[in-house]
Amino acid sequence: MSRDSTEPDLFVRPFGYAADQPVVRRLGDRDLYLGNAHAARPDNRGQSFDHVVSLTRSVELATTHHCPLTDDAENDWRAFANAVDTARQLYRRDGSVLIHCKAGVSRSSAVAATTVAVEEALAFVNALCLVQDARPHAIPHPALHEQGVLYVAAESGPSTRRLLDAENLAVRDGPEN
User: Fold this and answer.
1) Which of 17, 34, 59, 109 is found 20 to 30 A from 136 (Cα to Cα)?
2) Of 76, 86, 152, whose CA–CA distance to 113 is shortest?
3) For the segment 85-142, what is each residue's pLDDT rounded down to a tens digit?
């Protein structure tokens, strides 16, 4: 069992599966939350958020900012960067921010980790560990993981090469495209 002994150490989620109840995880003591689509509905057990970033195709009732992404390698760089830019702007404001996708596992974890990495001057992998501390099931699609690393590198300036080398990634369609 994991640290809190409520979730197993290994979780195998069937492709496309999403819990049928709200999943909301606070990222440490930040006013930043990761969740699934049910978390962005008004009936999510009384928890409300000042800002809700929906990364799903459809807009949930509590959505304040819609930045649709897909959970695959087909995301355009501009769409990913827009989602992170939106999350970063909201994170800097007063109030709570929920970033959600369908299952609260891939798209939302990539955007949340990228947001934390840039705002707190962390490497993407370290920010992802913070996200996984809150939601052990959080595993971004490899393409989203790569976009997160590239976004952080683009925002980091001169340390870009060091960060990319640490993540073992080659720059292909970098942030300029």
Assistant:
1) 59
2) 152
3) 999 999 999 899 999 999 999 999 999 999 999 999 999 999 999 999 999 989 999 9
Radius of gyration of the chain (CA): 15
For Cα atoms 55, 36, 141, give the angle at the middle one, nearest 5 degrees.
Answer: 60
Q: Distance (Å, rounded) from C-alpha 127 to C-alpha 125?
A: 5
pTM of the shown model: 0.80
Q: How many degrees, rounded to 5, is the angle at CA 134 between CA 80 and CA 126?
A: 60
Task: Return the HEC string of 48-77.
Answer: CCCEEEECCCCCCCCCCEECCCCCCCCCCH
CATH for 24-166?
3.90.190.10
CA distances to 42, 62, 65, 78, 124 from 49, rounded to whole Å, are 10, 8, 12, 26, 25
Question: From the CB of residue 69, how many other CB atoms can be counted at a distance below 10 Å?
Answer: 25
Here the tokens at position 6 are: 């409520």
Query: In which region does residue 68 sit, left (phi positive, over 0), alpha (psi from -120 to 50) or beta (all else)?
Result: beta
